[in-house]
């Protein structure tokens, strides 16, 4: 009786095979999908990494260029060169006994050099590269999905 | 059919076994200790690059923001040996453009590539960006021409040529203020350091902190390369225009008077800020390797603080300041000058060996009477006299923030080499030695009409992490009262006016004192050569500057009044314009408005 009952409700063998094949294919598709996502993200990370390396080199070059231009400008406006240019243009050094002091209303003289702003209590601190570029998919998964919500909301 | 299924199963088992074996091997490699060690070693050796990032050396500015020391972009040019195609082309191009030996380049370009041992050869360093641009253009041209080369023809190629940029210290003003700046031996690259002046004194601040970082070669493993902050930049108290003017005048004075050297300091007596400090000789710090030629033997780099000398009569300012402050004398105290005085059994004479008759203290200073000042010192007594000298900082460092300060110890009563006559000779600046900066600092307490002595300093502010921090003036003592300072300033202004000194400048009331000092030598004092000095300040009622001048061994004339006083006057004439100081009358009118 039991045997008949089981037989009556048992799946047909071809359906079982289909189920197994379907399950296998579903798993395969899932694996392929995950691998695809992983490869895409890895490729994007590598591209971004190369771009960052290139930008860092560019930044170093620009820093050097800025320093170079600053010095070049200082050379062109150096005291010796300016005096020479003034002389070439026909200017002569004045006889100091003939110099007249003129009062210019509202002029309070040159201010001292302020190359940078004065110290303040505000401290700026920021990482140049976002966290999302530095963590693996694995880390992101654990931190973003399994971790608590506060740690995953970083505004990446 | 059964056979068919058996075969299928066998194939399935075979593939499953292969898969299992692969899986097993993967697990084994992952967990094997040796494999892990090997992996770590490979990772360490090839997976990362260790780089030391040297921060940009801080800039140095004058008080108005003119760049005195900065950095230029230069390149190291080298050859990657495994990439070389044509050593002749490399040698020809590099020797022509960089003006270096063809043979040397050819030899380097022909070196065999040995992996890990011989892969790269440096051909030239500190090559300018313009030269590198020329090389780059030529490189590109040869690469373009490659396509046109027929089989069998020699390929013109600069392949293997590489250039890497780095910074080189640069001094845009060349020798201007070089005695203050010092120099940086940039050619030593990683071992480079500052020498003399500000470059040495503030080397740690300027250099910043090098950072060592490990960068993975795998682009997927992005690391945040820290932005290494540049070394701190410095803003000096120096005014470039005043410095240039003082250097010009002191150079002319040295030439005109045939002096061995010249020194001039311009200082703000109200806070100790050095506005200019000019000496001879000076070098171009861009060519620091000339140091030995510019400073032969033991020539000091900056005489203003590295060479002590017997200052002569300018020292009388300190003697009189002490005497007035201690109440030993007043400006009206009478003195009968008989032409000599005996102190400690030794005769002291005036500079002209003459007797000047009845004098008051103003007359004593005006005529610079050694006999009178010796008498004043004896009236003060050694204890009081030397305690004032010590209060003025004589025999001690001023601690000016420049490298290389020297001092001459002050001989005091009780010392083996102190004799009673020293009291007299010291009173007019003989038998005692000081640097010009010591003298300027001591006399600044008189010049500022406050009696307060401020530490002479060169650093006005420094810039660190993008912020500018000002350095406040430091008062190092108050050797005399404000009243004594004012009294003495007035006495010295009257004495200048009474003798119609060459030092006077129209429109400005100035105070000052000449100095002519004999020079000690192993065989006694030299008879034909002197040190000529002048110290002056003004405007008397609202002092803004103190100028100290020293000409060493002038040959045109021996007297400070004829050699050093005109230098002071020439400096002040231009200084008042550069400082925007109105003539006294105009200032009084403006203040009265």
- Beta percentage of chain B is 15-25%
Number of strands of chain A: 0
Largest interface, counted with CB-CB under 8 A? A-B, 50 and 55 residues
- Low-pLDDT stretches of chain A are 149-156
Secondary-structure content class of chain A: mainly alpha
**Structural class assignment of chain B:** alpha+beta
Termini Cα gap of chain A: 64 Å
Structural write-up:
The complex is a heterodimer of chains A (156) and B (593). Chain A is mainly alpha-helical and 156 residues long. Chain A has 5 helices and no strands. In chain B, 38% of the residues lie in helices and 22% in strands. In chain B, a hairpin with a 6-residue loop joins strand 21 (524-538) and strand 22 (545-552). In chain B, helix 12 (316-325) crosses helix 15 (382-391). Chains A and B meet through helix 2 and helix 3 of A and strand 3, strand 5, helix 9, strand 17 and strand 18 of B.
Q: What's the SSE blueprint?
A:
The complex is a heterodimer of chains A (156) and B (593).
Chain A: H1 2-9, H2 13-76, H3 79-88, H4 137-146, H5 149-152
Chain B: H1 2-31, H2 33-47, E1 48-53, E2 60-61, E3 67-80, H3 87-98, H4 102-109, E4 120-128, H5 129-145, E5 161-170, H6 178-181, E6 183-184, E7 194-195, H7 197-201, H8 203-207, E8 211-216, E9 233-236, H9 240-257, E10 261-268, E11 273-279, H10 291-294, H11 303-306, H12 316-325, E12 335-337, E13 340-343, E14 346-349, E15 357-359, H13 361-366, H14 370-380, H15 382-391, H16 420-427, H17 436-447, E16 453-454, E17 459-464, E18 467-470, E19 475-477, H18 482-498, E20 511-521, E21 524-538, E22 545-552, H19 560-578, H20 584-592
Parallel strand pairs in B: 2-9
Antiparallel strand pairs in B: 1-8, 2-3, 3-4, 3-5, 6-7, 9-17, 10-11, 10-22, 12-15, 13-14, 16-19, 17-18, 20-21, 21-22
């Amino acid at each position: 009786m039991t045997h008949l009952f089981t037989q009556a409700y048992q799946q047909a063998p071809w359906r079982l095979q289909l189920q197994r094949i379907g399950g296998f294919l579903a798993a395969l598709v899932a694996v392929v999908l995950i691998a695809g996502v992983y490869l895409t993200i890895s490729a994007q990370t590598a591209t971004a990494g190369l771009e960052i390396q290139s930008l860092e080199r560019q930044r170093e070059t620009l820093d050097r260029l800025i320093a170079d231009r600053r010095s070049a400008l200082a050379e062109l406006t150096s005291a010796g060169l300016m005096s020479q240019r003034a002389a070439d243009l026909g200017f002569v050094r004045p006889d100091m006994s003939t110099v007249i002091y003129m009062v210019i209303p509202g002029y309070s003289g040159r201010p001292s050099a302020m190359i940078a702003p004065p110290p303040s209590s505000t401290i700026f601190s920021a990482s140049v590269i976002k966290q999302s570029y530095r963590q693996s998919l694995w880390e992101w998964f654990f931190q973003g999905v399994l971790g608590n919500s506060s740690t995953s909301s970083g505004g990446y | 059919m059964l056979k068919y299924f058996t075969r299928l199963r066998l194939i399935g088992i075979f593939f499953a076994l292969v898969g299992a074996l692969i899986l097993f091997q993967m697990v084994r490699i992952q967990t094997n200790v040796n494999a892990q060690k090997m992996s770590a070693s490979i990772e360490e050796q090839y997976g990362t690059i260790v780089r030391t990032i040297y921060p940009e050396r801080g800039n140095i500015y004058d008080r108005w923001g003119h760049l005195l020391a900065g950095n230029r972009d230069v390149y190291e040019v080298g050859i990657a040996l495994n990439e070389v195609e044509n050593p002749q082309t490399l040698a020809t191009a590099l020797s022509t453009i960089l003006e270096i030996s063809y043979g040397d380049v050819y030899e380097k370009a022909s070196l065999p590539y040995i992996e890990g041992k011989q892969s790269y050869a440096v051909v030239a360093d500190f090559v300018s960006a313009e030269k590198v641009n020329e090389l780059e253009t030529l490189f590109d041209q040869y690469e373009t021409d490659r396509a046109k080369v027929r089989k069998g023809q020699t390929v013109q190629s600069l392949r293997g040529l590489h250039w890497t940029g780095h910074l080189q210290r640069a001094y845009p003003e060349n020798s201007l203020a070089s005695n203050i700046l010092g120099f940086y031996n940039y050619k030593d690259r990683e071992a480079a350091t500052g020498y003399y002046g500000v470059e040495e004194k503030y080397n740690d601040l300027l250099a910043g902190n090098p950072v060592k970082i490990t960068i993975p070669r795998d682009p997927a493993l992005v690391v945040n390369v820290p932005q290494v902050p540049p070394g701190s930049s410095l803003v000096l108290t120096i005014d470039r225009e005043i410095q240039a003017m003082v250097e010009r005048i002191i150079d002319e004075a040295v030439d005109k008077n045939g002096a061995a050297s010249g020194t001039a300091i311009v200082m703000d007596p109200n806070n100790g800020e050095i506005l200019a400090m000019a000496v001879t000789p000076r070098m171009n710090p861009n060519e620091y390797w000339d140091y030995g030629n510019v400073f032969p033997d033991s020539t000091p780099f900056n005489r203003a603080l590295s060479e002590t000398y017997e200052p002569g009569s300018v020292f009388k300012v300190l003697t009189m300041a002490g005497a007035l402050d201690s109440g030993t004398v007043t400006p009206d105290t009478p003195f009968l000058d008989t032409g000599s005085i005996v102190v400690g059994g030794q005769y002291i004479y005036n500079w002209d060996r003459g007797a000047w008759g009845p004098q008051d203290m103003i007359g004593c200073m005006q005529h610079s009477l050694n006999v009178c000042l010796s008498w004043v010192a004896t009236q003060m007594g050694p204890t009081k006299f030397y305690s004032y000298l010590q209060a003025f900082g004589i025999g001690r460092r001023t601690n000016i923030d420049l490298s290389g300060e020297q001092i001459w110890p002050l001989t005091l009563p009780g010392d083996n080499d102190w004799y009673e006559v020293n009291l007299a000779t010291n009173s007019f600046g003989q038998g005692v030695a000081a640097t010009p900066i010591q003298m300027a600092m001591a006399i600044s307490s008189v010049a500022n009409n406050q009696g307060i002595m401020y530490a002479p300093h060169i650093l006005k502010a420094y810039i660190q992490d993008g912020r500018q921090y000002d350095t406040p003036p430091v008062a190092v003592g108050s050797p005399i009262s404000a009243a004594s300072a004012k009294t003495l300033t007035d006495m010295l202004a009257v004495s200048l006016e009474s003798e119609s000194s060459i030092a006077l400048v129209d429109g400005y009331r100035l105070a000052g004192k000449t100095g002519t000092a004999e020079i000690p030598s192993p065989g006694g004092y030299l008879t034909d050569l002197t040190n000529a000095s002048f110290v002056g300040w003004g405007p008397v009622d609202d002092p803004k500057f103190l100028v100290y001048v020293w000409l060493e061994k002038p040959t045109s004339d021996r007297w400070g009044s004829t050699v050093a006083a005109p230098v002071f006057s020439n400096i002040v004439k231009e200084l008042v314009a550069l400082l925007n100081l109105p003539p006294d009358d105009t200032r009084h009118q403006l203040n009265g408005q």
